Amino acid sequence: MNIQMKKGVLELIVLLETEKRDMYGYELVSSVSKVIDVNEGTIYPLLKRLTNEHYFDTYLSESSEGPPRKYYHLTETGKRYAKELLKDWLAFSKQVDLFIKECEKG
């Protein structure tokens, strides 16, 4: 997939994933990678920015497999932002789909 397309939808996917439940960074990388191919170097800066913008709160939780994990919890502001992004994405993708169908008709 084109890198610019990935960047355009990555934030929305991360927000929607964490709306389901709190997640830690590597868990998010694994989950998001099922939808689009990403790596830790892409996700962690995004998580930092979204946290700085108050869309996430973070907390540490003990892990049986090593050091404590930093979990990301979507704030109310983050939930509103996710809904806004989803609404924008649905409108945008609908317009692009209509355009493609018109182009295919010739």
TrEMBL record:
Annotated ranges, domain Transcription regulator PadR N-terminal: 19-83
Question: Which Gene3D superfamilies does the record associate with it?
Answer: Winged helix-like DNA-binding domain superfamily/Winged helix DNA-binding domain (1.10.10.10)
Q: What domain of life is recorded for the organism?
A: Bacteria
Recorded protein name is: PadR family transcriptional regulator
